[in-house]
């Protein structure tokens, strides 16, 4: 059985703590490795490595930094299938989906190759007589990235390529459920020529996270995970004076108006609801069927969802297992609760015969109709292959439900009415909006982030906001010619 270690000073680091956690292949139920769980001393050792590497890295020219980034990009592109296989083995998502995740991460690496342009400063000549001013953006120092299980490669890549390109050093704390991708990425950086200590990996749980939040050498934290932990990370990190962006959970609603193309809408619901077994923060989990479309839409969704092949992601399947047995049982319990509360189970994934080992963590696509807004299937983030259909009478009622929801990550509207779509994107209180697009994940050069309980902090991930998050501004005022200050003058300097 393999041991999954930390990564420090450009090589694996076993750490001194003897604590470990099992890593499981969700498609077989077999424990495939033990991941190290850092103690405080291990965390401090990894942070010290990032701190020691910072001065030289921040003074490394942008030209050299971006050459290394380009090399990393080339290696990742050549070897992305290897990484996708690792993801499937620990997360369970099917191969095509794992490859999709790597490709979306790759887009951020490509964006980061152009970061020098985004962190350029400005220059003003003669702001005052013979006084010039320029502004620069400088890196922060060692920064932490704390990531969730559901995108073990893409979510870390939302942050670390930009952080590194901007001159920071990084400590990545991946999810303990699927930690191997982080080490694979660390090896790739090493091969690309990144100096030791610039990219480090700290494996662990709350102990590791708390040290990252409290340690004064960590200057910023980018967190992605569930809402209660995101809020905790934001509060504790900012209390110790750090810059924090903490992206949380979601409950994404898709509104289907009566004039929508129902075949297109049903395809979109099924793809966005059951892709990655619903374990995506941008998954659609609630369909708001407006007016008379309910019966026909539910029939079309169910007909399509029935054709999904659930099974081992290394085989020719569409949807893999859930990440752990506990999580599968928790999601199944939500279906039980919805049924008991009066929702109609029009497609039942409990007890599915999957194309995989008997001990895999299987749950098939499930569609619940006539869901009420007080039911736990509606109020809670389920994070599984469960679609709830809520019937509403009007656009206004649909909008109200989306806006009343405590989460505000993603949403979509399906319609052929441009005016309704225009109203929706203007009125909806959600950070990422799709119009006839079910998973509106922005490209790397836009920023990714939700509103309300889906994000704590002011900065969204990547894009210009990412480049700003990982740098801080400095304004420099200079006078070289005619250095006379006009003698002693204690009044506040005025521009002439
Ligand atoms: P999680 O909150 O359980 O874990 C996220 C990270 O926090 C992990 O690295 C974990 O080790 C750490 N952690 C867990 N408990 C902790 C504690 N008590 N104290 C300190 N650190 C702790 O989330 P998860 O189950 O890995 O991921 C799924 C969640 O992430 C879902 O809620 C999903 O919506 C959310 N998510 C959000 C986005 C987004 O962009 N908004 C993207 C992906 C996932």
UniProtKB/TrEMBL annotation:
<dbReference type="Pfam" id="PF00171">
    <property type="entry name" value="Aldedh"/>
</dbReference>
<dbReference type="InterPro" id="IPR010061">
    <property type="entry name" value="MeMal-semiAld_DH"/>
</dbReference>
<keyword id="KW-0560">Oxidoreductase</keyword>
<dbReference type="InterPro" id="IPR016160">
    <property type="entry name" value="Ald_DH_CS_CYS"/>
</dbReference>
<dbReference type="InterPro" id="IPR016163">
    <property type="entry name" value="Ald_DH_C"/>
</dbReference>
<dbReference type="InterPro" id="IPR016161">
    <property type="entry name" value="Ald_DH/histidinol_DH"/>
</dbReference>
<feature type="domain" description="Aldehyde dehydrogenase">
    <location>
        <begin position="17"/>
        <end position="476"/>
    </location>
</feature>
<dbReference type="InterPro" id="IPR015590">
    <property type="entry name" value="Aldehyde_DH_dom"/>
</dbReference>
<dbReference type="InterPro" id="IPR016162">
    <property type="entry name" value="Ald_DH_N"/>
</dbReference>
<protein>
    <recommendedName>
        <fullName>methylmalonate-semialdehyde dehydrogenase (CoA acylating)</fullName>
        <ecNumber>1.2.1.27</ecNumber>
    </recommendedName>
</protein>
<keyword id="KW-0520">NAD</keyword>
């Amino acid at each position: 059985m393999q041991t999954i270690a930390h990564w420090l000073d450009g090589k694996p680091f076993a750490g001194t703590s003897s604590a470990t956690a099992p890593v499981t292949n969700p498609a077989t139920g077999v424990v495939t490795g033990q991941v190290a769980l850092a103690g405080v001393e291990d965390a401090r050792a990894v942070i010290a490595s990032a701190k020691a590497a910072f001065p030289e890295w921040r003074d490394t020219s942008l030209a050299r930094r971006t050459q290394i980034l380009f090399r990393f990009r080339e290696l990742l592109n050549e070897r992305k299938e290897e990484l996708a296989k690792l993801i499937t083995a620990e997360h369970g998502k099917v191969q095509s989906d794992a490859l999709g995740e790597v490709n979306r991460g790759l887009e951020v690496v490509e964006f980061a190759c152009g970061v020098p342009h985004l962190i350029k400063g400005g220059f003003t000549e003669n702001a005052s007589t013979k006084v010039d001013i320029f502004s620069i953006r400088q890196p922060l120092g060692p920064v932490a990235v704390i990531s969730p299980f559901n995108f073990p490669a893409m979510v870390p890549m939302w942050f670390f390529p930009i952080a590194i390109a901007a001159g920071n050093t990084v400590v990545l704390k991946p999810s303990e459920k699927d930690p191997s991708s982080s080490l694979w990425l660390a090896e790739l950086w090493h091969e690309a020529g990144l100096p030791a200590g610039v990219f480090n990996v700290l494996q662990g749980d709350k102990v590791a996270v708390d040290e990252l939040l409290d340690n004064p050498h960590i200057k910023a934290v980018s967190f992605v995970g569930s809402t209660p932990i995101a809020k905790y990370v934001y509060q504790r990190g900012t209390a110790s004076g750090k810059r924090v962006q903490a992206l949380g959970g979601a409950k994404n609603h898709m509104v289907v108006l009566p004039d929508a193309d129902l075949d297109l809408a049903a395809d979109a619901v099924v793809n966005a609801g059951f892709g990655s077994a619903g374990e995506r923060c941008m998954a659609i989990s609630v369909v708001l069927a407006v007016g008379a479309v309910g019966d026909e839409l539910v029939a079309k969704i169910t007909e399509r969802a029935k054709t999904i092949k659930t099974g081992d992601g290394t085989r020719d399947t569409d949807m893999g297992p859930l990440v752990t047995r506990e999580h599968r049982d928790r999601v199944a319990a939500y279906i039980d609760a919805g049924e008991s509360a009066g929702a109609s189970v029009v497609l039942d994934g409990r007890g599915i015969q999957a194309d995989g080992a008997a001990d895999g963590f299987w749950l098939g696509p499930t569609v619940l109709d006539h869901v009420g807004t007080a039911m736990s299937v509606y109020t809670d983030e389920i994070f599984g292959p469960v679609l709830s259909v809520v019937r509403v009478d009007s656009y206004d009622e649909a909008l109200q439900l989306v806006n009343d929801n405590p989460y505000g990550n993603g949403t979509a509207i399906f319609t052929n009415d441009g005016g309704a779509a225009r109203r929706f994107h203007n009125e909806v209180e959600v950070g990422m909006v799709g119009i006839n697009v079910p998973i509106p994940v922005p490209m790397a050069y836009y920023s990714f982030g939700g509103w309300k309980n889906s994000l704590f902090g002011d900065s969204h991930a990547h894009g210009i906001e990412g480049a700003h998050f990982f740098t801080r501004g400095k304004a420099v005022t200079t006078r070289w010619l005619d250095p006379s200050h006009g003698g002693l003058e204690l009044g506040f300097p005025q521009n002439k």
